[in-house]
Sequence to fold (253 residues):
Amino acid sequence: MSRVADLLGAFDLDPRAATPLYLRLQEQIKAAIDAGSLKPLEALPGERDIAEAFNVSRVTVRKAIAGLVDQGLLTQRQGSGTFVAAKPERVEQPLSRLTSFTEDMRLRGMTATVHWLGRTVSLASPQEAMRLALSPNETVVRLRRLRFANQVPMAIECATVPTRFLPDPDAVDTSLYAVLEARGALPVRALQRLHAVNLSGEDAALLEVAPGSAGLAIDRLSYLDSGLPVEFTQSLYRGDAYDFVAELNLRHE
Ligand code: 16G
Fold:
């Protein structure tokens, strides 16, 4: 049997079937992913191999694959082919402990990595100055990062930190909190606000999910022991990757 048939099974080319060929091919690839014969991160056989094995045109194969990429089931990497999308392990994060992304992942035995989307030093915008209790001529570092756990994109984070606590944005390699701790500016308290969003095209593409997928938007404003704000971060988490868990206590007067 060819690798294509091995992975995808036999294809029924019945010309009388009412559903268009590319949709039937899509269903077949989906079924192989659901059944686990095609595993997360595994490469899909080449367009030409599928076309030959199933006796359909390459246009049909391309159309089927494009639809599955739009649905977030497959991802395409330029030059290296088409892969089954990664399935993130769900991460449970307590809402009452102030931890960093890197630490959270390490505690779960996963490795945190970063893809940098931007790191700059600029004058604080009026909004940033208000939030971080700065005077208008003070500067801030802005770090925009795509964050991965075991190679799976989990969140897009934009952190703003006054340069008086972090003068050099290049000092941050993976963990912002590790650098703040080394500088004696680790936050000890934070206010966090979260709400549900539908991930837009560009954010969805970075997080390798279908446009419109569910996401969680989280704003965190963190403070030093002295009461000064040290970080304002806006994060967008994949909705399929995170469970936020809060412990509730009955108050005894
Ligand atoms: C978490 C924080 C974020 C903080 C980051 C530091 C949430 C929602 N956000 O992702 O505010 O900047 O950790 O992590 O938990 P790092 O030390 O790995 O850069």
Q: What stands out?
A: The pocket of 16G is lined by residues 100-102, 112, 157, 159, 175-178, 218, 220, 231, 233, 235 (CB under 6 Å). Helices lie at 3-8, 21-35, 47-54, 58-70, 101-107, 126-131, 176-182, 201-206.
